[in-house]
Amino acid sequence: PWRLLLALPALPALHLTRRRPHLRGAVSRYLVRVALLGVDLAHARRLAGELAAEFARTPQWLRQRCIDLAADHLRAGDRVVVVTATAAEVARPLLDAVGLGDAELRASSLSPARGGTRLSPHNYGRRKLDSLQGVSRPWHVMYSDSAADLPVLQETQEVVLVAPSPGLVATVRAACAPAIPVRTIV
């Protein structure tokens, strides 16, 4: 209950920043930090596993088309690397549950912190590009739903935006070189 009091002021900001990823990220990070306050690492990991299981059981929370495309890439022998700001403790069991266990994962990590647990490092924005060190280039295609991924999108040969707003499409097209095709899927 006390965490809710800390989170309440940020909830309207979360809605108001839905089209401004550079601001939305800060609000989202704040809410995650609040959610992890007072939660020890072992408990946070248990909660992460429960959250992954709930996502896997709730198909409307997932983009089945994206899961199918990633599975197609794996079956074709492509190297699939999932790069996410989500904690690995959520992302790995979720990937396993939806049949993408062979995909590599570059994710945030839950770490002990004063007053609870935190994401460290938080694999967000430019850090996603850093997390891909060691993955040989060229990167053929990247699927994304956020302008926060621009540092990586600008380095790939093709961009596929997932359920994007018109503003996101315009932002990504403006930021990427003209030679980089930008497609959309729903």
Order of neighbouring strands in the sheet with most strands: 5-6-7
Instruction: Write down the overall geometry.
Output: globular
The chain-level structural class is alpha/beta
- Overall helicity: 40-55%
The rounded Rg comes to: 17 Å
Number of strand elements: 7
Give the DSSP E fraction (strand runs of 2 or more residues).
15-25%
Distance between the termini: 36 Å
| Total of helices | 9
Which stretches are low in confidence, meaning pLDDT under 50 for 5 or more residues running?
Answer: none
Largest sheet: 3 strands, parallel
Mean pLDDT: 92
Order of helices and strands: HHHHHEHEEEHEHEHE
Explain what the structure shows:
- With 186 residues, this protein is of the alpha/beta class.
- It contains nine helices and seven strands; from the N terminus they run H-H-H-H-H-E-H-E-E-E-H-E-H-E-H-E.
- The chain has helices at residues 2-7, 10-16, 21-36, 41-57, 64-75, 88-97, 126-131, 150-153, 166-175, and strands spanning 81-87, 104-108, 110-113, 116-119, 142-144, 159-162, 182-185.
- It is globular.
Write the layout of secondary structure elements.
Blueprint: H1 2-7, H2 10-16, H3 21-36, H4 41-57, H5 64-75, E1 81-87, H6 88-97, E2 104-108, E3 110-113, E4 116-119, H7 126-131, E5 142-144, H8 150-153, E6 159-162, H9 166-175, E7 182-185
Helix pairs in contact: 2-3, 4-6
Concise description?
The chain has 186 residues and is an alpha/beta fold. It contains nine helices and seven strands, in the order αααααβαβββαβαβαβ.
